[in-house]
């Protein structure tokens, strides 16, 4: 296993992680081996109500526990997993791990909140996400309201008919759909409404602009107003400061996620978060 910080939690490998991965070929072999040896864990990052601090959901974020280097960020291997197709296996594994974890928390008597999982473009294009979700929800006897799916705008740019069919099939299960990293792609809000997306997660690039300029704030305000007018709710990603949270509250943003509220954490840390229920005191 990787290095621990003494509290039994893994730490990220400090130096440039690109050096771990000396060549693309080597990374592909290592990834395949990692899948076979099950060297992946899910971390969870809470998403909270912007006004009450109540934990609404937790995003599952995959990490590779590298035998020599400890925790490896998904930014280091998801792109390669995408180009090699290994993302199909990793994606299904994430789905299964998330469902198994929800089942464990439920069995332990915790008041669980929904878990959202990230679905990559290649995985989505296969048109099998809805079937896989159905399998794991059924296997672990989990209500579909406890699972949410995050998809980027670019993943929805494929053949309109197929995209609509897959999104419809996921929604028909009762699983909510989130647009991840909104603002980094080229989709319009009206397109996303036609696709019946439930939630817009605004990319952290826009959150980080909030305190810096009037424009940043005006831009975010426009997204919130339009999303609300179209019946979608808004989550700000990457909230790092009290100032940003304050501005987001003034703008009417529904939910927030970011280091200011909570960092992604191992599953073992989640029961106390769920028991605590709120990550900050009510401001309204
Ligand atoms: P994402 O889905 O947009 O997830 C948010 C990323 O931002 C996470 O990085 C999270 O740790 C980070 N983050 C959260 N709050 C803050 C903040 O306040 N400041 C900053 N600077 N960063 C923050 P992470 O865990 O490294 O994941 C990176 C990306 O990798 C994710 O972006 C997602 O696109 C992808 N990813 C993670 N897990 C999976 C997975 O299971 N499947 C797929 N297909 N992609 C995944
Ligand atoms: Mg996400
Ligand atoms: Mg995101
Ligand atoms: Mg993002």
Overview of this protein structure:
This is EAL domain-containing protein. The protein has 284 residues and is an alpha/beta fold. It has eleven helices and ten strands. Strands 1-2-4-5-6-7-8-9 form an eight-stranded mixed β-barrel, surrounded by four helices. It starts with 23 loop residues before the first helix and ends in an 8-residue tail after the last helix. Bound molecules: ligand C2E and magnesium ion (MG) (3 copies). The site of one magnesium ion (MG) has 4 residues, from strand 6.
Topology, element by element:
Layout: H1 24-37, E1 40-49, E2 55-66, E3 70-72, H2 74-84, H3 87-107, E4 115-118, H4 121-125, H5 129-139, E5 147-152, H6 160-173, E6 176-182, H7 189-194, E7 199-202, H8 204-207, H9 214-229, E8 233-236, H10 242-251, E9 255-256, E10 265-266, H11 270-276
Parallel strand pairs: 2-4, 4-5, 5-6, 6-7, 7-8, 8-9
Antiparallel strand pairs: 1-2, 1-9, 1-10, 2-3
Helix pairs in contact: 1-2, 3-5, 5-6
The structure holds ligand C2E and magnesium ion (3 copies).
Bound molecules: ligand C2E, magnesium ion
Main beta sheet, described? 8 strands, mixed, barrel
- How many individual helices? 11
General form: globular
Structural class: alpha/beta
Give the DSSP E fraction (strand runs of 2 or more residues): 15-25%
Please state the average pLDDT score: 92
Give the terminus-to-terminus CA distance.
Answer: 45 Å
* DSSP, total strands: 10
- Please trace the helix and strand order, writing H or E for each element: HEEEHHEHHEHEHEHHEHEEH
Tell me the radius of gyration.
Answer: 19 Å
Biggest sheet, spatial arrangement of strands: 1-2-4-5-6-7-8-9
Give the helix proportion (percent range): 40-55%
Low-confidence stretches: none
Organism: Massilia polaris
Protein name: EAL domain-containing protein
């Amino acid at each position: 296993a990787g290095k621990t910080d003494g509290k039994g939690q893994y730490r990220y490998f400090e130096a440039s992680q690109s050096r771990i991965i000396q060549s693309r070929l080597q990374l592909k072999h290592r990834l395949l081996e990692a899948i076979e040896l099950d060297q992946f864990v899910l971390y969870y990052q809470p998403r909270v109500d912007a006004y009450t601090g109540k934990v609404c959901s937790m995003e599952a974020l995959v990490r590779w526990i590298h035998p020599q280097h400890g925790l490896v960020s998904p930014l280091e291997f998801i792109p390669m997993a995408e180009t090699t197709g290994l993302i199909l296996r990793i994606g299904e594994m994430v789905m299964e791990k998330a469902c198994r974890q929800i089942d464990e928390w439920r069995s332990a008597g915790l008041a669980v909140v929904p878990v959202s999982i990230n679905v990559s473009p290649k995985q989505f294009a296969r048109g099998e996400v809805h079937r896989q979700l159905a399998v794991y929800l059924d296997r672990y006897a989990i209500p579909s309201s406890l699972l949410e799916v995050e998809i980027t705008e670019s993943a929805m740019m494929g053949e309109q008919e197929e995209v609509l069919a897959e999104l419809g099939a996921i929604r028909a299960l009762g699983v909510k759909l989130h647009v991840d990293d909104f603002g980094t792609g080229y989709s319009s809000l009206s397109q996303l409404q036609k696709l019946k997306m439930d939630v817009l997660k605004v990319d952290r690039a826009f959150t980080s602009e909030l305190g810096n300029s009037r424009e940043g704030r005006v831009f975010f305000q426009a997204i919130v107003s339009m999303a609300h007018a179209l019946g979608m709710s808004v989550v700000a990603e990457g909230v790092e400061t009290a100032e940003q949270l304050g501005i987001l509250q003034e703008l009417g943003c529904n939910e927030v996620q970011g280091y200011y509220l909570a960092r992604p954490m191992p599953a073992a840390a989640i029961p106390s978060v769920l028991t605590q229920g709120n990550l900050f005191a009510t401001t309204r």
